[in-house]
Fold this protein.
Amino acid sequence: MRYTRALVAVSFVLILVSCKKEHGPLPGEPPVGAPKHILLKDIIIPHLPSPFYHFEYNSDSLVNKVDFSSGFTIYDVIYSGDRIAEMRNNIFVNHDTLRYSYDQAGRVTLIKFINDENVVFRRVLFTYSGNQIQQIEWDHMTASGDFLIDRKVSFAFFPDGNLKTMTDHRLFPAGTPEHSYITTFEQYDNKINVDDFSLVHDGIHDHLFLLQGFRLQKNNPGKETFSVDGVTFYTESYTYTSNGDNTPSTKIGDFVYASGPDAGKRFETSTFYTYY
């Protein structure tokens, strides 16, 4: 349900008030040493544009093309060595460039969104605790040329490095209510996660960017709980089918509304993964 969480949250607020497929780097994760590679191809979610995510790779098994929502955005991924330097949207109506910057430790610290006029109109800033991501902030350029934060996501992790909570705070124009969305993850398995990049992707309003040099989930959560402003909206329990290399092939969710007029209602969700 992470792919439609933004729509779910809005509704809740209204209610309230091949052989190469082996273990190694995932999309956007740089290689270390001589790794074996997982080459994720498609993520398919019934009733959404298909494939929802699609990846292509270069001869070094690094992602060089990403397609979101069956062509809604299509990015060419450009590298400097083994680090992502830019992601360039190449659809007919949009040619924005996402330009990555790194600190001396090699951690991505900033992504600039640059339009056709070479104007930086949006920025994404990364804050770490040691080498672990602590917070990501999105800001946009105002009419005065200043940058104003409109989204802030903070993370808390289990000792094994898997994400425990993700707090997504949306800041709206003055006079508009602000809301915090908290997603809690539990009951991780010991298999390989391949889609944690999607956790911070607001596909409705914002560009996709690939994680670089850090992970949010190494394994797959068995339960997800979503709340808005402290009130639980839904829980979803997951069952996975895995391939022989411990990558997921299917994810089946048991989604249950926890509050609102649909409290107690449930339905099944599904996600399918394919590989090269």
Summary: The longest strand covers residues 231-242. The radius of gyration is 19 Å.
